Amino acid sequence: MAPVLELRGITKSFPGVLANDHIDLMVEKGEIHALLGENGAGKTTLMNILYGLYNPDEGEIFVNGQKLEIKSPVDAIKAGIGMVHQHFMLVPVFTVTENVMLGEEYVKYGDVLDRKKAADKIHEISNTYKLEIDPDAYVSDIPVGMQQRVEIIKLLFREADILIMDEPTAVLTPQEVEELFKIIHTMIDQGKSIIFITHKLGEVMEIADQITVIRGGKVVGSTTPHESSLNDLASMMVGRDVNLEVDKTESKPGEVVLEVKDLKVLDPQGHVAIDNMSFNVHSGEVLGIAGVQGNGQTELVRALTGLLPAIDGEIYLLGKEISKNSPRKITELGSAHIPEDRQKDGLVLAFPITDNLVLNTYYLEPFSKSIWLDQKKILQNGKELVENFDIRTPSPTTSAGSLSGGNQQKVIVAREFSRPIKFLVASQPTRGLDVGSIEYIHKRLIQKRDDGCAVLLVSTELDEVMQLSDRIAVVYRGRILDVLDANTATKELIGLLMAGIIPTEEEKQKLGSKQKQIRLT
Amino acid sequence: MSTQTETKTIQISKGILKLERRKRIIMGAVFLVAALFIWLMFVSDLDPGVETRFVMTPGGASAEAPDWVFPTSVYLNIIAGISAMLGAYQIIRGFGKRTYSILALVAIMFIFSFLAWATAGGSTNLAGLLRIMVVRAVPLTLGAMSGILCERAGIINIAIEGMMLTAAFVSTVFASLSGSLIVGLLAGVISGGIMGLIHGFLCIKYKINQIISGTVINIFATGITSYLSSKYIQKVDYQYLNEPGMFPQINVPILSKIPFIGPILFSHNMFVFAMFIFVALLTFLLFKTRWGLRLRSVGEHPKAADTLGINVFKTQYMAVILGGMMAGFGGTYFSLGSSGRFDEVMTAGRGFIGLAAMIFGNWHPVGAMGAGFLFGFFDSLSVRASLLQVNLPSEFLGMAPYLATIIILAGVIGRGHAPAAEGEPYEKE
Ligand SMILES: Nc1ncnc2c1ncn2[C@@H]1O[C@H](COP(=O)(O)OP(=O)(O)O)[C@@H](O)[C@H]1O
Ligand SMILES: [Mg+2]
Q1: Residues B184 and B108 placed together within one structural domain of the fold
Q2: Which among A45, A296, A426, B195 counts the fewest CB atoms within 10 Å?
Q3: Based on the domain organization, do B45 and B177 belong to the same domain?
């Protein structure tokens, strides 16, 4: 029998990047096929081609042995291909039913929506596949994990047979990941085939039947979980041996640098995003904030850096109350910020690297003399930092926008670390970076800690938080549910807290005594 | 365990995140302030025995109704009392989803109080005021619906004014030449549709900033119609081009005979009835049909629509063309429904006020019509300000709707929900 899906020689280039280079991929019916690759390897591009969102420069697609021209999502849907996108494709102000049937609506009297019939079908699907959902809920009101279920139901509603899931676990708690894996197995039992995309090795080992690894737009290998090990996969994915562990010594916490007391912050929509939060960060330690995306992390960071006003509570930096201060004032006190969205909040993309390196010091000596900027000093500073922080660029005056993600992040790190700082907020410091850059940023963060800086690390990557932190605070709906010692905290315990469940002492004992899991990316 | 997790999650989320307490309290405070204002400014200003007389039959109407005479301070005390109670309830418990309806109610009661106070000791033709209000609401509501059609599909349309003006001009010329109002109407509607298509071309195909495109269309429309108007159709020699005639008043059988309501609602030319029909139709189409669901999805999340096989660009073109036609229809009201001729810049900013009505009405046809009525009422009142017993500059009344819009736009009473993707050109790849 022909494979359910076969891609031959798919090639796609974007200006300056060969995102897919003659990629071949074969998926058998009833198989969970993992597509493994680092950020930027070209996984999403390949799947967007398969789904008709991009047109390939070259290559052929076969579904059940038939060659197909997939020019738009309509063709893909017709061919039984469905995709859960990395960024959900849901309309927040629509109900679950409306989202599910959009594009494939049930109608009566010509064009009138038959919401009832669609909801019935959703119930049916949710029973068959054990996907719990309320068809009448608005998508904006349901948690991310449930939104993902809506995405899956969308595919099943269209009776897709080949299901693509692009990094589906990125937004889930460990427990939700387990739930998802169960759902995936149910779907396989019902005769579906699944392409599971990820850059997390542990997940691949757990769920895949077949693994294809891509790197730099090329297929570098194909294997199964039985025939390979985590380390094999890691070096295949990255192209060299990688050290998956972060080397760090015991922390030596000193005095309190940051103290947050009963902080309350609203998000721009006026909802309470941070609700009576209190915690401390000491010098020489990393406090990690773990939590599913959207539980107030963004607002917390913005409040600490003066970008969002607190409606209640106090923030003390080195004993000084700063909750009413301007960002510049806070920066001058010795606080540094690696923002969550480096392109929007961290850099002026159109400016040269040299100018980006003095964005928060340009008005001070030596870069500024009376009303003039000293361009020579700025250029010299740029050259030095490019050198010291290993920023790969043709020249220090290249615009920041033309750098790769990893090097953009290095520019930010260089800017923040090259002034004397006492406190650092690092928000999603490695999001979307390749392994080399991740290693580099991690090393630098730990180095800063060892220099006696207080570090607040906010990340939705649980592995990252567990590797780098000395203490871990778990946030849920704007509250800190617990602060754990990183040496004894387990993934299960943090996962429960991330889902908003506070375990009893007894459960805690049980989870705490369990063997610590191997920590891998 | 998962269900347990879920219910817990939802409980906590309801407890913390959806705390819209602040908004609730502000709204309650607004109601209380209205009550206080009535007591302090109106009631305390009145002699206890004074009466208000509202004439309930507009001039030359088809049905007679007796005048409504009542003791002013008693009524105002009752209204203020109700407002205060509503305010207290809003602060303590909140009206939840019905908050906005209650707000509308309080606004109506407040305006009524103002009118009763201003009339105290004399008489005002209430029916006449309301009748004019309905008429004045027509171009505003139709303009707002043009905006709704476009913006629900993600295209900002500030060119409503220009589209209306063009249609007013084109319809005048065509109706005059052909001697048929229907031909004029169709020509106006089509010219609006073409303006919409141009706007769509600039914004969708060339991805020009939508505000700039709209501004350009407005300037162009004002310029070209003013030029053609002063050069030709206002000249005596071309007088035959500026005599389109007007749609006649229709008295709906039976309904127009209902006292008070009949003359206000059922004794107008066809534009008023068309407004009601279009509001109902658009509401139905937008929220109950496949067509509407797809249109709205494009305005909220075009990428999602695209991944589900909906053609984003085609949908947007359709929306701007229909929106243009709606504005065109609204434009013909000025020439064929209101004055029976074309005058330079005769739309006088109504298209922009329509846009304000759209925002005020939260991008919903019924809301927009409500806003149209509100604005229309002040419009109607400012014309008659001199007839009121109290001395209030008519400009001040004319300002009231805009003040209200600014307050809404500033988000004091809670921000409306504009379609999420409006104004951003959709890029494939
Ligand atoms: N629309 C686009 N325009 C330009 N470059 C793109 C676009 N989409 C992806 N790329 C580039 O193609 C490469 C592969 O990206 P992607 O497929 O998203 O990787 P992955 O999903 O494996 O992380 C990256 O270098 C990325 O910058
Ligand atoms: Mg990707």
Answers
A1: no
A2: A45
A3: no
pLDDT of residue B76 exceeding 90: yes
Q: Residue B1: what pLDDT?
A: 36
A103 touches chain B (CB under 8 A): yes
Q: Identify whether residues B226 and B199 lie together within a single domain.
A: yes
Over the stretch A415-466, which tens digit does the pLDDT of each residue have?
Answer: 999 999 999 999 999 988 888 888 889 999 999 999 999 999 999 888 899 9
Instruction: Match 């096989």 to its residue by tokens.
Output: B309
Q: What is the pLDDT of residues A70-81, one digit of tens each?
A: 999 999 999 999
Which residue's CA is minimally distant from atom 4 of ligand 1?
A: A14
User: Given this model, what pLDDT does residue A153 score?
Assistant: 96
Say whether A132 and B22 touch across the interface (CB within 8 A): no
Dig out the tokens for B87 from the structure: 């305010």
Contacts by A314-321, CB closer than 8 A, 24 or more apart: A314/A259, A314/A260, A314/A261, A314/A262, A314/A263, A315/A258, A315/A259, A315/A260, A315/A261, A315/A263, A316/A258, A316/A259, A316/A260, A316/A261, A317/A257, A317/A258, A317/A422, A317/A423, A318/A257, A318/A422, A318/A423
Q: Do B13 and A143 touch (CB under 8 A)?
A: yes
The answer on pLDDT for A501 being more than 90 is no
User: Where among B121, B139, B156 does a domain terminate?
Assistant: B121
Position A270 pLDDT exceeds 80: no
| CB-ligand 1 contact for A45 (6 Å cutoff) | yes
Which residues neighbour ligand 2 (ion) by CB within 5 Å? A 44
pLDDT tens column, A158-172: 999 999 999 998 878
Which comes out higher in pLDDT, residue A86 or A16?
A86
Q: According to the model, what pLDDT value does residue B8 have?
A: 42
Q: Which site among B17, B26, B427 would you substitute to test the A interface, given the most A Cβ atoms closer than 10 Å to its Cβ?
A: B17
Q: Answer whether A146 sits within 8 Å of B6, measured CB to CB.
A: yes
Distance A335 CA to ligand 2 centre (A): 33
pLDDT tens figures, B210-223: 999 999 999 999 99
Number of domains making up chain B? 2
DSSP string, A179-233: HHHHHHHHHHHTT-EEEEEES-HHHHHHH-SEEEEEETTEEEEEE-TTT--HHHH
Dihedral sign from CA coordinates of A508, A510, A513, A517: negative
Measured by CA distance, the residue closest to atom 14 of ligand 1 is: A42
Q: Which domain holds residue B94?
A: 20-121
Taking 80 as the threshold, does the pLDDT of residue B146 lie above it?
yes
- Which residue in chain A has the smallest CA separation from B308? A103
Q: Are residues B79 and B212 in the same domain?
A: no
pLDDT attached to residue A280: 94
Question: Does ligand 1 come within 6 angstroms of the Cβ of A17?
Answer: yes
Q: Where are the alpha helices (DSSP H) in B333-409?
A: 350-360, 365-384, 394-409
Assign A383 to helix, strand or coil: helix
